[in-house]
Specification:
The chain is mainly beta. The protein has one domain (about 5-300). Helix content is about 10%, strand content about 55%. It has three helices and 14 strands. The strands form two sheets. Strands 1-4-7-8-9-11-12-14 form an eight-stranded antiparallel beta barrel. Strands 5-6 form a two-stranded antiparallel ribbon. β8 and β9 (about 180-195) form a beta hairpin. The chain is elongated.
Length: about 300
């Protein structure tokens, strides 16, 4: 589950080196809306953003062995608990903000922008999972299976969600049309529906636990961005929690349901549309004033 974070960190460090010419405010090119000097001619440094797409709950197999017990009429048995993921859906809408004075550090003699933009949103998540318990009744030696019995438990939980995140963009071409979008953020979810806790068939609720309705996590996202046109961007990518803050379970970013854990990974299509500048219908200043303002914005 931590592979996404590792890949994201590698890209963030390696991408920073080849993106320097676009991030240098002393450079000659001033077309970078996300990285270096920002030219928001005809656009505001903010806009609407929304994303949607399927998610999947990844799991890992767990096994347990239960020895003969007199309460089971002396019948010896063992059992396996095997979880599987289910496809769900996620969607959110909010705002994206591109600060004109983003924080910078001096890297190899060039000012390097630590953040390209930040965004926030409200939305919903539908997460699901399934667990199967298989019981093998054995003879006195515990080696020969006499009969088998199974049970299943399946669920879909519906969450209302709020999220905030900061993003860094690394351009892949000099024309600034394609880029990598790396983000770190936090999400706060609350279960509004679903939550099946019943099993069909046999199961042993020895290690059974159900996640608290409120969930707080740190998450990471990685996307491949395309500039559709000035002020419009399409960023397909993947997002997943990397640290669970609440309900605390040694920092695990998984959700616990029945006797298993589920790691929700979202495959999203994200869009950003910047707002156009509005004329106030009054005096907009002289041509010289507008020229000075444009030069000032380009060299921030």
């Amino acid at each position: 589950m931590h592979k996404l974070l590792l890949i994201s960190l590698i890209l963030s460090f390696s991408g920073g080196f080849f993106a320097q010419k676009n991030l240098n405010p002393r450079g000659k090119k001033h077309k970078d809306l996300f990285g270096g000097p920002q030219d928001f001619s005809n656009f505001q440094p903010r806009g609407i953003q929304f994303s949607f797409g399927p998610n999947y709950t990844f799991t890992k197999k767990s096994d347990a062995l239960l020895q003969a017990d007199s309460s089971m009429n002396g019948q010896r048995f063992n059992y396996n608990v095997n979880p599987t993921g289910r496809i769900g859906f996620s969607a959110q809408v909010g705002m994206a903000h591109f600060p004109l004075k983003a924080p910078k550090v001096n890297l190899f003699g060039n000012p390097y922008r630590l953040m390209s933009y930040w965004d926030w949103g409200l939305g919903m998540n539908l997460y699901g999972g399934k667990e199967k318990t298989t019981v093998n009744y054995t003879d006195a030696t515990g080696t020969n299976i006499l009969s088998t019995e199974s049970g299943t438990g399946a669920f879909y939980n519906f969450y209302g969600s709020a999220k905030i995140s900061v993003h860094k963009l690394f351009y892949l071409t000099s024309k600034l049309r394609y880029f990598i979008d790396f983000g770190i953020g936090a999400n706060f979810d609350y279960q509004l529906g679903g939550g099946n806790r019943t099993y069909t068939g046999i199961h042993f609720p020895i290690n059974e636990r159900f996640q608290n309705p409120f969930v707080a996590q740190l998450n990471s996202s990685l996307g491949f961005g395309i500039r559709l046109k000035r002020g419009s961007y399409f960023i397909p990518g993947v997002k997943a929690p990397i640290l669970g803050m609440y309900e605390w379970d040694k920092g695990s970013p998984t959700l616990h349901w029945f006797s298993s854990t589920y790691w929700p990974v979202t495959f999203q299509a994200k869009f950003i549309f910047l707002f156009k500048q509005k004329s106030n219908g009054c005096n907009t200043g002289s041509e010289e004033d507008r020229k000075k303002n444009k030069e000032y914005m380009q060299n921030k």
